[in-house]
Amino acid sequence: MSNPTAAILVIGDEILSGRTRDSNLHFLAQELARVGIDLAEARIVADRHDGIVEAVRALSAACDHVFTSGGIGPTHDDITADAVAEAMGVPLGVRADALAVLQAHYDRMGVEMNEARLRMARIPEGAALIENPVSAAPGFSVGNVHVMAGVPRIFEAMVAGLLPRITGGTPLLSQSYRILRGEGEIAGPLAGLAQEFPDLLMGSYPFQSGGAYGANIVIRGADGARVHEAMTRLAAIFPE
Amino acid sequence: MSNPTAAILVIGDEILSGRTRDSNLHFLAQELARVGIDLAEARIVADRHDGIVEAVRALSAACDHVFTSGGIGPTHDDITADAVAEAMGVPLGVRADALAVLQAHYDRMGVEMNEARLRMARIPEGAALIENPVSAAPGFSVGNVHVMAGVPRIFEAMVAGLLPRITGGTPLLSQSYRILRGEGEIAGPLAGLAQEFPDLLMGSYPFQSGGAYGANIVIRGADGARVHEAMTRLAAIFPE
After folding, report:
1. Could you give the maximum distance between any two Cα atoms of chain B, in Å?
2. What is the interface pTM, i.e. ipTM, of the complex?
3. Number of neighbours of residue B237 by Cβ within 10 angstroms
4. CA-CA-CA-CA torsion for A13, B42, B59, A84, nearest 10 degrees?
5. CB A42 to CB B43 under 8 A?
6. pLDDT at B2
7. B77, A204: Cβ pair inside 8 Å?
8. Sign of the four-CA dihedral B106, B109, B110, B116
9. Would the pTM count as exceeding 0.90?
10. What's phi and psi for B131, nearest 5 deg?
11. Nearest-5° angle of CA A111, CA A117, CA A119?
12. Pairwise CA distance, residues A32 & A51, whole Å
């Protein structure tokens, strides 16, 4: 498989403190699977400059794409743009195109531009804007790093605008099979099957239901015929 | 603040593929906040040996505690114990105490021990077992790394047994205040307040509700009187 790889970097004290349960990571994981981009890693870091810089550098070097969530609003704890610009080694300043988008939005709303709102027009040099159809303040792509808002409704709208611009690969096809036996009985035959089908990914996800042990076996791969072949073999070993 | 720091490492393809939405991270974030351990970072990695080893090493060096979730069952994709043992530089083998716990459980259930189930008795040398009151197979603590199951019900039970053994710090106290104005108006005064109270953490979490813009301002700190003082000032600047 040579699909493009990706990492997600969620930025925000509120997730790490347990105050907020993140939803952007799961949303983007599903979207990336749909377009054939393999999510290799996810990280959540606090609103601290050095930690964000370090994570952006590491993930940008390791993956084809990095998607960030959070920290691009007007308040003092919104420091993502500064950190990403430093990580990517490019200057950051108010940019005319971003300012025009914001000014038009505030004019429509009858709200005045001020220093805090102006912060949201600060975009790294050479970055492409990501449209924000909800509250105007844009995200941006600089190098292979795509910087988006943390508010889920805005994040999701930005992803919808961004993903068609990114070249995906072959989406993995997936089949799952529910087996009402303990994983300890399933493990041996499943390991044998995994060795016979090295081109497929096989995962076992145990559950307990009403005192009974069972597992959902998920088989994934780019070739649907192979997935079906392996699944047929598994069903023959563990008939319903 | 000199509370102990922690990282969470969630291990599992099923989270990164978007198939499953993780809940252990949010659960543990809340539990750690309660006992005064500061969650500094979270990572989610795939079921790949090298990636797990690398993440365990990095997080174990950076934080006082690392909590892992997932990959300690009997199937071929359960490789966490091997990776953690390698990361911590200790041998891994079937241990008598873990085997006794498992054997007693299978005897009670009338199920036979087999090669797959025996895998769950493989514990790194010198590790302390973490009790699993749900399905017996234990987790373990080796050095500052605490290895637990991914199934939420088991993970939560293991955390409940483990946390009292770990020395926490001063839980941060938190107050929040809802302001029905755009963040662009709140940002200036809030930044001034944050500078006046450098011992406190102030976060702004915007929302939109029925077309109106607003933000929840969260102020956190170890000293409740200081949090109250800052919050009183904030409420005076933005009266309801």
Report:
1. 69
2. 0.92
3. 13
4. -60
5. yes
6. 80
7. yes
8. negative
9. yes
10. -65, 140
11. 165
12. 25
Determine the pLDDT at residue B22. 96
Identity of the amino acid at A133: P
pLDDT greater than 70 at residue A1: no
Per residue in B172-200, pLDDT (tens digit) is 899 999 999 999 999 999 999 999 999 99
Q: Give residue-wise pLDDT tens across range A175-226.
A: 999 999 999 999 999 999 999 999 999 999 988 877 788 999 999 999 999 9
> How far off is chain B from A195, nearest CA to CA, in Å?
10
Per-residue pLDDT, A85? 98
DSSP B150-173: SSHHHHHHHHHHHGGGS---PPPE
- CATH of B5-165 among 3.40.640.10, 3.40.980.10, 3.30.70.260, 3.40.50.10860: 3.40.980.10
Q: For residue B93, what are its two tokens?
A: 């083998």
A173-237 carries CATH number 1.10.3300.10? no
Closest CA to A159 of A224, A234, A66, A67: A67
Owner of token pair 């993780």: B22
The span from the CA of A25 to the CA of A32, in Å, is: 10
For helices A80-88 and A49-62, the axis angle rounded to 10 degrees is: 50
A71 shares contact with chain B (CB less than 8 Å) = no
Helices (H), A36-165: 49-62, 80-88, 96-109, 115-119, 152-162
Side chain identity, residue A164: P
Neighbours of A55 (CB within 10 A): 23
Percent of chain A clearing pLDDT 70 (strictly above): 100
Residue type, A210: G
Tell me which chain A residue has its CA closest to the CA of residue B73.
A183
Chain A residues lying within 8 Å of B188, measured CB to CB: 114-116
Rounded Cα gap, residues A99 and A104, in angstroms = 8
DSSP 8-state secondary structure symbol assigned to residue A20: S
The domain limits of chain B are 5-165, 173-237
Q: Which amino acid is at A195?
A: Q
B17 touches chain A (CB under 8 A): yes
CA A130 – CA A109 distance, rounded (Å) = 21
Reading the block at residue B6, the tokens are 């922690």
What's the mean per-residue pLDDT of chain B? Answer: 95
Six token digits for residue B222: 């170890």
Q: How far is it, in rounded angstroms, from Cα B17 to Cα A32?
A: 8
